Amino acid sequence: LAGTRQKETVSIYLDGKLVGNTPKKKHEITPGTHTVVLKCGPCSEPQEQTLTFTVSPGDTYVNVRNEFTP
Length: 70
Description:
By secondary structure, the chain is mostly beta strands. Helices cover 0% and strands 47% of the residues.
């Protein structure tokens, strides 16, 4: 799992657990269905986006990118 953000620092939650902030270069994930929540606290108004995806055995990389309104 990798996450990038252009301006504000965004908190990255994987399956309900905080795994870091952007930019996040690499975080190992297991095969299965996962939920990523991106939270932008420094934005003018707090914003959140939830993404759900499935990782298949053998997948090696998932890139998550989002554009929040500053």
